[in-house]
């Protein structure tokens, strides 16, 4: 019997992983916020995954952070701003052999979690899969993609990747996971904030090419200062290709703001601006975009961080 996967956060990605693992017969338990969420979950049939229009429900056992069972493998599927606090609640259940898989976008939250648990192995992930909730305990698999997993401190791949194979979760072990996360952060910083400021789909940025190019030049410099030259290679070219290929899409940050949800700005643009400050450098355009974005968030009564 393989080790149980505890999944922290029954949101879009947490449910996408939990249902596919459960479907493959891998033992899974879902950790919900509190008794109220557990009661709501327990009153239903389980977790529903909608794939190509077909909905299937899987019975996955739910529990709260207070459950006594020790945790050996934890998939952290909260938003970046919730991850350190949510993991801290489970600290007493995590043994020295615990492994955590951190699915958060951006950078900063992974290091915060790892610093809380110096003995545990923290595996960072970067995913291009897409999912959204269309109801409580129900998720739509919206975009097939790939998940890269890696551990900058220990490059050996864990044996449990075979669970992901069995669950048909497309993945690859990466020996340069930080480069991947930095690259994704830079792409996000060049596109997402501008789509919020101009209230447009990704393709709408074709009308703001100069601004995109200036941001890419600053981000390229930043990646080089931060020791990430591989993540900087042809950044502007890839940003242009992404804008074209996803012209009809609304960025995740645009959707968060449109739905009055907190953004992950502190782990994306905020992290980039802080990294520049740590190197005592000024990136005027990036900082200006951050200031404009914060102003917009405050005007909409959304958290500024
Ligand atoms: P989400 O749908 O908002 O799910 C987050 C879940 O975490 C929610 O169910 C929330 O509970 C739960 N949570 C928060 N604090 C908790 C706590 N203390 N204890 C237990 N559960 C807690 O978010 P998501 O879209 O899956 O995103 C997760 C991360 O993956 C983000 O960093 C995101 O950027 C990244 N990502 C997402 C996608 C995607 O397509 N969705 C793709 C790539 C990367 P409640 O339900 O009670 O609020």
UniProtKB/TrEMBL annotation:
PANTHER family: 2-DEHYDROPANTOATE 2-REDUCTASE, 2-DEHYDROPANTOATE 2-REDUCTASE-RELATED. The keyword Kinase does not apply. Residues 176-291 form the Ketopantoate reductase C-terminal domain. Catalyzes the NADPH-dependent reduction of ketopantoate into pantoic acid. This is 2-dehydropantoate 2-reductase. Coiled coil: none annotated. Keywords: NADP, Oxidoreductase, Pantothenate biosynthesis. Pathway: Cofactor biosynthesis; (R)-pantothenate biosynthesis; (R)-pantoate from 3-methyl-2-oxobutanoate: step 2/2. Its EC number is 1.1.1.169. GO terms for biological process: pantothenate biosynthetic process. GO terms for molecular function: 2-dehydropantoate 2-reductase activity; NADP binding. It catalyses: (R)-pantoate + NADP(+) = 2-dehydropantoate + NADPH + H(+). Belongs to the ketopantoate reductase family. It comes from Pseudomonas orientalis.
């Amino acid at each position: 019997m393989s080790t149980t996967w505890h999944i922290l956060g029954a949101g879009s990605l947490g449910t996408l992983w939990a249902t596919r693992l459960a479907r493959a017969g891998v033992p899974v338990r879902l950790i919900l916020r509190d008794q109220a969420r557990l009661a709501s979950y327990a009153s239903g049939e389980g977790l529903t995954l909608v794939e190509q229009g077909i909905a299937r429900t899987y019975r996955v056992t739910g529990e709260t952070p207070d459950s006594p069972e020790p945790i050996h493998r934890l998939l952290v599927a909260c938003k970046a701003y919730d991850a350190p606090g949510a993991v801290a609640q489970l600290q007493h259940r995590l043994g020295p052999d615990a492994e955590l898989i951190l699915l958060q976008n951006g950078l900063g939250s992974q290091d915060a979690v790892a610093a809380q648990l110096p003995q545990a192995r923290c595996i960072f992930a970067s995913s291009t899969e897409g999912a959204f909730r269309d109801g409580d305990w129900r998720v739509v698999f919206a975009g097939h993609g790939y998940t890269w997993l890696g551990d900058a401190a220990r490059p050996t791949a864990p044996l449990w990747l075979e669970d992901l194979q069995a669950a048909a979760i497309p993945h690859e072990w990466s020996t340069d996971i930080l480069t991947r996360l930095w690259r994704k952060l830079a792409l996000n910083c060049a596109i997402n904030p501008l789509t919020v400021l101009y209230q447009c789909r990704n393709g709408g940025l074709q009308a703001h090419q100069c601004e995109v190019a200036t941001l890419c030049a600053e981000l390229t410099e930043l990646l080089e200062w931060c020791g990430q030259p591989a993540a900087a290679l042809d950044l502007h070219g890839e940003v242009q290709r992404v804008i074209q290929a996803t012209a009809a899409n609304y960025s995740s940050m645009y959707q968060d703001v449109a739905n009055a949800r907190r953004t992950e700005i502190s782990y994306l643009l905020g992290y980039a601006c802080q990294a520049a400050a740590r190197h005592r450098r000024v990136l005027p355009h990036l900082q200006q975009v951050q200031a404009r974005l914060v102003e917009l968030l405050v005007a909409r009564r959304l958290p500024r961080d």
